[in-house]
Each structure stands twice: as C-alpha cells, then as structure tokens.
TrEMBL record:
InterPro entries from the UniProt entry: ABC3_permease_C (IPR003838), MacB_PCD (IPR025857), Macrolide_Exporter_MacB (IPR050250)
Membrane-related topology note: Multi-pass membrane protein
Cell compartments where the protein resides: Cell membrane
Ranges where the ABC3 transporter permease C-terminal domain occurs: 275-395, 745-860
PANTHER family: ABC TRANSPORTER PERMEASE YTRF, MEMBRANE COMPONENT OF TRANSPORTER-RELATED
Keywords: Cell membrane, Membrane, Transmembrane, Transmembrane helix
Recorded superkingdom: Bacteria
Region (Disordered): 59-81
Protein name listed in UniProt: ABC transporter permease
Species whose genome carries this gene: Streptomyces gossypii
Chain ranges of the MacB-like periplasmic core domain: 19-235, 500-709
Amino acid sequence: MTVVKTSMRNFFAHKGRMALSAIAVLLSVAFVSGTLVFTDTMNSTFDKLFAATSADVTVSPKNAGSGEENPRSGKPETLPADTLERARQAEGAKRAEGVVLSQSVTVVNEENENLGASSGAPTLAGNWTQNDRRSMEITSGHSPRGPTEVMLDADTADKHDLKLGDEIRTIAVTGDRTAKISGIATFKVTNPGAAIVYFDTETAQKFLLGATGVYTNVAVTAESGVSHEVLKKNVTGQLGGAGAFKYETQQEAAEANADDLGSFLDVMKYAMLGFAGIAFLVGIFLIVNTFSMLVAQRTREIGLMRAIGSSRKQINRSVLFEAVMLGVIGSVLGVAAGVGLAVGLMQLMGMVGMELDTSELTVKATTPVIGLVLGIVVTVLAAYLPARRAGKVSPMAALRDSGISSDGRAGRIRAAIGLLLTAGGGLALVAASQADEASAGASMLGLGVLLTLVGFVVVGPLLAGFVVRGLSVVVLRMFGSVGRLAERNALRNPRRTGATGAALMIGLALVACLSVVGSSMVASATDELDKSVGADFIVQSDNGQPITPAAAKKMQQMTKTGELEHVSEYKIVDSQIRTESGKLTDAEDVTAASPTYAQDLRVEVVEGKLSDAYGENSMSIDEEFAKQYKVGLGDELTVAFKKGKRVDGKGVPLTVKAITSSETVVDNGAFYLSIATAERLVPADQMPLNQIMFGKAKDGQAEAAYTALKQQLDPYPQYKVRDQADFKQTLKDQIGALLNIVYGLLALAIIVAVLGVVNTLALSVVERTREIGLMRAIGLSRRQLRRMIRLESVVIALFGALLGLGLGMGWGATAQKLLALEGLKVLEIPWPTILIVFAGSAVVGLVAALVPAFRAGRMNVLNAIATD
C-alpha cells in the first residue's frame, strides 16, 4: 500500500512532466484503435450491403467471379436463354428473376462529366428487379418504362445536382445511349460510393449484353419456410447439377463479395497498424528518457526511502506503478481519441467519394481491450530499465547526491554490441545488393534493415559524441560561447541524446528510404519509356476499362484523314499453349497487336525479328518461357483460346519467329501475335477489346495531332490521351501520391519523436535548474539562455536527422539494386527532398525548444540558485 501511495504522490507531483509521455501513448493507441474501428466499420458497412443485395439463391455462369471485373470482351458472361424458366420450376422457389448487370460502362451528364465515383468504386448498369427492392426504394419518379428512360441512384443524383427529366448518357461496348431520368432510387443501407443506373430489362439486355432473352444471373427467392440451402439444392438439381452453373446462397454470395473486398481492407488495415507500431517504437524512447530523467532527479528521495527500509523491489515497483498509471491514462484517452480518428477518416473518405455513414460506426469489444493492453504493456516495458536502475541506487550514494552513476563497462559492452549489429546489418545489405534473385535479396534486405536499425539505436550514445561535435563545428560554433554551451549540454549525457535522436531517426530513415525507392522507380520507368516507347500518344482508361469499338473507330479514322500516321491496337487474349512435345503449359496472356506495334514499342529481341511475329501463323515468346519449356526459334506451338477454365477449340499451330528479352520493363514477359491471327483463334463474340491503343503522328505534326486526338475522344471521358511527357508525369504523380500517403502516416511517428525532444529538454531544464541560476547570476542573459536551449534542441534534431537520412538512403539504394533485377535499373537520390527534410529537422528542433526555452528564461535567479 505504501508503494501505491508513494507512486501516486510522485506521479501527480510530476504530472506536467508526464503529460508529453501520456500524449505519445495517447497518439499511438488512438492510431491503433482508430484503424480497428475504421476497418471494422467498413467491413460492417459492406457486409450489410452485400447481404441486402444478394438474392436467396443466385445462379451465375460457371466462369463468373473469376476476378476480372471488366471482361476483356467488354460484355459480362451470360446464362443460356432457358435458365430463367427452368429456375422458376425448382421446388421451393417463390419467384425467379433474370438479372442484367455490367460494370463495363461509363455514365456522363449533359456537360460530359463522368458520374462515376472517384474513389475507385464501380459504376454499375442493369435492370430494375424485385430483388433490388431489398436494398433500394424509389423515392422520386418511377422505374424505367422504355429505351428513353433510366433510373439513377440518389447519391449520384445529389452529388451531381441531377433531377427528374435531366438527360444522361451511358457508354458501353455496344455504343452510347442517351435517356432521361425517370426515377431516383435511394439505398436503404449505406452505399459506399457506387454509381448505379437502371434500364428496363429489354433495353438492358440489348444495350449491355447485345442480345435479348439472356441474363448475367438469375435471382431466386425462396417460399416461406424453405431454407436457402434447401432451395439451392433444388435449383441445382433443376438446372443440371453443380458443374453446370455457379450456385450461391445469400450468405455465400455475401461472403464471396466480402472476401474479394477483404483482401484490400486487410492490406490497408495492417499497413496502418504497421505505422502505429512505428509510433509505439518511437514512443518507447520518449518514455525511457522520461523515466530515466525522473529517476535521476529523485536520487536523494530514493536514497531516503532505501535508508528507512524500502527494498529494491519496492523502489522498482514504485516506478513501474507510475508507468502503469501513465499507460492507463494515455490508453483510455487514446481509445476515445481513436473513435474520433475513425470518424475523421470516414469523413475524409467521403471527400474522395466513398460515402460511409457515421451512424454505422462499429466499435467491437476487442478494440478498447487491444488499445489498453498495448498502451499499458508498451509503457511498462519502456519503464522497466529505468525502474531497474532506480532499484540499484545505493542509499549512501544517493544521500550524498552523487546521482545514479553510469557504468563505464556497461557502456563499452553496449557500444561493442551496437557496432557488431551495425556491421552485421551492413553485410546483409551488401549481400542483398549482390543477390541474383529478388526473393533471396528481399530476405537479406529485411535482415539488414532490422540489424542496422537496432545497431544504430544501441550505438547511438557512441555516435552522439562524434556526430554532435561535427555538427557543432558547422552549426553551433558561429554562436560563440552560447553555441559551445549548447554543444556541451548535448554531449553531457550521450545516452539521453542518443535515445532522443534515435526516436527521430526511425521516422526519417523510412522517409529517406521510400523517397529513394520512389525516385528510382520514376527515373527507371522514365528511362525505359525513353528507350522503348516509339509511339507519340497512348490512350487508355485509368480504371482498367477496355476501349469501346466506337472510341477505337474514332481513333482509327484519324489515319484516313491524315491526322495520324498510324494507330496500333493492343488486345490481351487468354490462351492455353501446347509445345511440340505435347506438354501443356500454364495459362498465358498473349498480346494480339497491330504490326505497327513493333515500331511503337522497341522491345529487345534475343533471337529473330519482332516484326516477323506479326506475320501469318507466327508469334513471339518470352526468353524465360523459351528456357523453361525448351522452345527455340522456328518451333511450332499450338495456341487455343482460353475461356475461364475451359479451352475453346483445338487451337491453331503458330511458329515462333522471335524471342524477346526478359530484361525489359514495359511488356515484360509478353507474347505477341497479330490481330489477324487472334481473330482466327478467338470466336468473334469473345474477341477481346483493346486494352490500350497507340498513335504515331506524322513528322512535325505531333502538337496538332495531340489536340485533334483529344477532340476526337472528348465524348469518352473515361479514356485519357497522353503523350510521352503526360505519361511520365502521370507515373510521377501516382508514385508521389502514394508516397505522400506514407509520409502522412509516418508523420505520427515524427510527431511522437518531436514530443520526445520537447520532453527531454523540459526535464533537462528542470535537472539543470541550479546550473541555469548560476549562469544567469554571472551574466548570461535570458535571450542567451533561450538561444542556448534552442541550439541544443537543433543539434539533437539534426543528429537524429543525419543518422536517419543516412540510414534510409542506404536502405533505399539497396532496395533499388533489387528492383534492378526487375528491370528498374536507375538509382536516383532525391537530394532536394533529403535536404528539405534535413533543414526541416532544424526547424523541428527550434519548435520543440520553444516551451522549454521560454520556461527556462522565466526562472527566478535566486530561487534557481537555492534549488537543491
């Protein structure tokens, strides 16, 4: 009981000094709790949506749901025409409806603005059925009654200020269709951002499927008292067994959709938790420093407690109990803040188009438990070493106020271990950079990152002595005696300086590493584009939609008008290949392209000529494939069109006329044949659409052709026309956007590190109260005192930045060596970013010192001198 009272008294006596440590725990726990609440809410929202939109039993084509949301043919798979009538005859079926649904559509308003979600959610088009009434209700107007009417979902209508009577245009493979909005339907559950347009059934069949009487699936509703499992069994028996179609109950369909989404949500969840883990790691340094300094300041108090009979264990428990209190307070507040963070993330997702209703907020019972356990355990673990050190204080030494003596032997052992770990990590990084295979190199890279990081943390006090002196020559000496005082203060306790700098080092090392990797990827891709892409223009959809025949025709017409020299088509055909020896290979994607594609992409060829591969009954293969299956130039391969898991026809024999290099980045591993050959190989109704198209302008007419091509494709806003400069900029923007997200997440760790600098300085000022009073008494002005503390903070921040940036660039350079095995061969160090981050660290140091410096300047000189 005495231990508890003593701990509580000490805790509340130093509550101001504990505050920053509590904030660090709060932020870390909030990030964990917020991530869990946010992802649980998204899962719950989508689970309710999938359950509401799934029929009791759904019948789909056997190959549906293979993971290809936008089929290469531009049309969904369909069921035989008699499937609906046969399903209606199943025992226990109350109702069966034919459903038409396609994602390969684009919807635009009268201003040609794409109505699709910017969040990546799909645009759906289909027919209005009774099954849709489970999840939606018509709140305005009526359902479509003919080819000139459509119904739109309320969220899309509100977002784009659309109302009844407005015209919208839907673009599909079969052409364009303009119709007036006859009705608006509102979701009964949360719509996470999908745009939905409904047609009457006949129009949907003709427009989306190209034929009447067929459906993409059949929705069967059970009679009262008939379970979904029993109905599924009866429907399966009625339609020809499990091998004929795919049959799913409502629960199975919802789970299948949730599984498809779950993989993405899991990646996002664990990535965010990873950054929270980094923040926790940084917070450990802050807590260790805080308790170490508090223990050092209470040396005499601890000595008195030991003198009157307190045991080492009691002292140890007293400090650990304070840590428990800190962990509990920080964790409880962190869990509450995490819920607020989750709401903020939901609002942020709403700004980018994914609507999540805050009324659906899901806080599982495990979330606060995880937050509390993590916060308390991490805090107690961080406080263990200072607590153990406090228990070792000798009563007589403490009463003499000699402090907690440092163990020189322990310091030397620590330095030796740190150097050994760093050397081991360096060797692992060297081994990774010289690896012949990316998988083996990645393992060595991970080991090298871990060892060098731990090594730098352990050897930090030793490095502080060298690095801080070097920085002082450049940064501090110009400030004269004040600068020298700041240098000595930073070097007074190398262990503390090392721990404070290490906290900042971790976040900045990751920033530097990712900056190097991102810049190298952009530079490598840009270099590869310059070397290999001969086309002037590239046309494609950013969401993977194929290019409709109407849009492709507009582009091809430009060759007839002389605005373009040539246009190259690019289609991807699923195929099965059999070698001359009769060996059936794995499924392969074969690229069917125009012969001019050999000019638009300068692929490195190791044998033969790529232009020959576009001849009749000819093809090219990749170097790795040739080695694996022992195929050479002039050999004959039998290629058959592959539809789902089924091969259509026996295939046609094609002669290998070229073998392409596996060292390329663009189209690495591609097999080529001509579109004419593909048309003989693939049934006409299954012929894939162009995934991408290329254009070449006549000499000296590139600018005019660029403008004309944009005008031609203006009615199709889903397609982007880019010249090579645009394409490079798009690549740079995409990688930059990803890095910005990562930097934003790493900002949490950097904020916690800044709190560590603030706390270290604040406690250091308290620790040096008498010394500061004496300096003021002999003439040091308040301004000089504040400058001294600010300079001390700056040099500590720069120390952490120098270690972090150097370490991160080493990691990034090694990672680039591994990327070079995949063709990304250019190493680029983003020096502007590195220098900005380094300079920003000095600013961080200045900001962190504002409050401690201000408080030090306000000290009463006489009171400070009189302090024990």
